[in-house]
Amino acid sequence: MRRWLGVALVLCGVGSTAVGQYRDPVIEVFKAQSEIEKRLLANDLTALEKAQGELSDASFRLLRLGDDLIRAEREGEDVSGLQARSADIARAEAEVARLIGACQMLRTAIGVRRSVLEQMQAEIRRLEEASQASQDELSGRWSVAIEPGGLRGAFDLRLDGTLVTGVYQLAGGWKGSLRGTLIGEIVRLERIDTQQGFVAVYSGRLVVREGSKRIEGSWEATNLAAGMPAGGSWVARREPR
């Protein structure tokens, strides 16, 4: 699942919402990748149909060349002519073998792609059911402010038991996935950037300020080579659904 999510994040971005309506971006990226898999499956089926047509033609040509060789042998054709016919048959046999291999590879790829697509669709159904039933204090979209630097963006989080997953998008084009835990009121998130990998760990506490839910805490960089500060503070405010 992590691979699908990473690919979809790059292809379609994160945090897509319709005006006035919250759309879970984790589900949206899975749906986007599912549509990509459907198109790739259709392309593979078209390629298989073409390869099987070429195999049929090549097999017919091989049989015809074989029949012609037998006829030439019986009619006493000279050695050079028979050798040329044998060479043609060898090339035709190689072409048939190549096309058989291509068809086998395509059938295998189609089987794998169908299996992946079924798993993705099952995961989408599971996430949608969980989204409808979810009334927890963490799942949803959070507006975040990260210091130093006043970096702004959004975290879209989903809670499953104590495990937290999600995606994020920050100013400057930074985006990627989040994973972590919620133990009591303590949130811990690992930030995995699509360009720089595992870059930071965010720790915070769920609190209520002025009647609204917030997460307040600190963060530490795990990849100082990325040019980020070594650490700082962060605040997240939950957006209405």
Structural overview:
- Strands 1-2-3-4-5-6-7-8 form an eight-stranded antiparallel barrel.
- The protein folds into two domains: 18-133; 140-238, Beta Barrel (Lipocalin).
- Helix 1 packs across helix 2 (25-74) and helix 2 (25-74) packs antiparallel against helix 3.
- A hairpin with a 2-residue loop joins strand 4 and strand 5.
- The two termini are 26 Å apart.
- It has helices at 2-12, 25-74, 79-133; strands at residues 140-147, 151-160, 163-170, 174-183, 186-193, 197-209, 212-221, 231-238.
- It is 48% helix and 31% strand.
- It is an alpha+beta fold and 241 residues long.
How do the strands and helices of this protein lay out in sequence?
Blueprint lengths: L1 H11 L12 H50 L4 H55 L6 E8 L3 E10 L2 E8 L3 E10 L2 E8 L3 E13 L2 E10 L9 E8 L3
Antiparallel strand pairs: 1-2, 1-8, 2-3, 3-4, 4-5, 5-6, 6-7, 7-8
Helix pairs in contact: 1-2, 2-3
Uncertain segments are 1-21
Order of helices and strands: HHHEEEEEEEE
- Share in β-strands: 25-35%
Overall structural domain count: 2
Question: Strand tally, please?
Answer: 8
Provide keyphrases for this structure.
alpha+beta; 3 helices; 241 residues; eight-stranded antiparallel beta barrel; 48% helix; Lipocalin; elongated; 31% strand
Brief characterization of the structure:
The protein has helices at 2-12, 25-74, 79-133; strands at residues 140-147, 151-160, 163-170, 174-183, 186-193, 197-209, 212-221, 231-238. By secondary structure, the chain is of the alpha+beta class. It has an 8-stranded antiparallel β-barrel.
